[in-house]
Amino acid sequence: MSTFSELLRTEASQLPLRQLRNNECRSPQGKRCELCSASRLDYETECTVKANALRQYWKSEKLPGVPAPLVPSPSGRYYRTVSKRKIFVSKGRFTLGLLGLDETRSNTFGVEIGECVIEPKAHASVYTAVSAYIAKSEHSDIAELLTYVIVKGSQKEYTVIFNTASYSPGERQLFTSFSKYLTKHVPSVVSVFVFVDAERSKYYLSGNAQAQKKRQLVLHKLFGNAELFHAVGPKKFLYSPLSFSQTNHSILEQFTAKAGEMLQLGKKDHLYDLYCGYGLFSLCLADKVASVTGVEQSRDSITDAAANAKRQRAAQTRFIASDITDEALPRFMKHHGEGLKVLLDPPRGGTKPGVIEALAEYRPERVVHIFCNIELAGAELKRWDEAGYAVADAVPFDMFPGTDDVELMVSLVQK
Description:
Number of domains: 3
Strand content: 25-35%
Structural class: alpha/beta
């Protein structure tokens, strides 16, 4: 049985390649990037291909009901508010590259790209400036320390995070000089941070298990604003560089509004927003209900959520730092049955064993379950079915244009 990604790639491979402009989606040697479909298809064609693949996948997985039409992203290209490049060394030369995988999917290699069309053009300016800096022999010390360079922010202001193996007082001077060079060459960079990962973890902004256990500081500000900013309609959010943030801000107003619509919220309802992050859904929907309880494992995110609620004067909200397991639910779930609404937006790996079943025992009137990994929908919706809940609606969103992913929002009701 084919995955959604496999169906999508098969469908896309049968279409002619689009004409590339200038240095977009190309290596310095002119080779076309093959890491995502944005180099192959224009956005309108991509939406058609995704919709076709979704219908095939839904049928092959025997998922319940019929999904609504794919909601396209308002920004189909240049949309990503989070991007990264890894540092690679080849023949003594330091380069920045996207992560490519070999045919065995076990080894990574660097893919140098001039302009990635799913990232804002300012991101390319950042990476061009960084590449020029680390290519100089006098900056090899700092190049050897770096693992990743990350760009986060809005469409106007950018935060750069240097993911480094160490950060001694002497190395701080190196990074301070680096920061001054970068902000001079890219004025839209409003803050620069260093994230210390002595373990050189496989994933960016990861590692430091021992340091975090000892409550040692792993994020250091070099310059600028301490928090990132973005707005969803009239709601304004500030959040830590380490808080999880959606990569496509252009679609968030539609996304949060649809969640409220599918939950059928009312003034007497009590909403539980599980995996709440810095309070995106909680605060966008707080005005519609009697109370909101947001729960998230990351303490940084919960601190951001509480601060955002205070700024927005959302007194009917509370935020709790907790892992979301079947054993933990009784500690924060205070309502049952009538008026209880639940929204869960778990990470890519899905919910932990027992969470869906335990939530169903509270008999919420309505649940919205969001899948950022559509491949998990079949297994997790089956668990809801066995727990006594049926699919009422399913709406796919093109949250990640150019990639093999579609975000799926599903509402569930008691049978």
